[in-house]
Amino acid sequence: DALLAEAEARAESLEAELAEVQKEVDRHEEQQTLLKEELRELQRQAERNKMVEKGGVDMEYLKNVILKLLQTGEHEVLLPVIAMILKFSPEEVQRCRDTYAQMFGTPMPEAASVVDATLGSAPKVLDGGLSLLDSVSKSFGLA
Description:
The chain is mainly α. The protein is built from six helices and no strands. The N and C termini lie far apart (about 85 Å).
């Protein structure tokens, strides 16, 4: 009986220790997630800063894209362009999608795939994004 009681006490002690370790692991995972999100935001901010140092965004082009968005409502095509130019976070893009879905009653599947593809990494944004910008510019007479 004494041996069994000692083993049960040890098992309870180990279970409590395991629970504490699991809480610590959960805290570390949460911190890791927050740090990754912060790193992504800092990367986007660095990209914005590089653009400013290199002469910034072509404000005339940005103005024309936004003007076309407001005039035509072509949010499926123009949101990805604006998101890429201004380095929107995925959360900011999603808020725009949600707003357009509420306003117009339709989701934005086309924009979702384009934005997700172009926001994957900085080199992809530059390589794939320029062709997207060129095609949108030509289709709306902005180029």
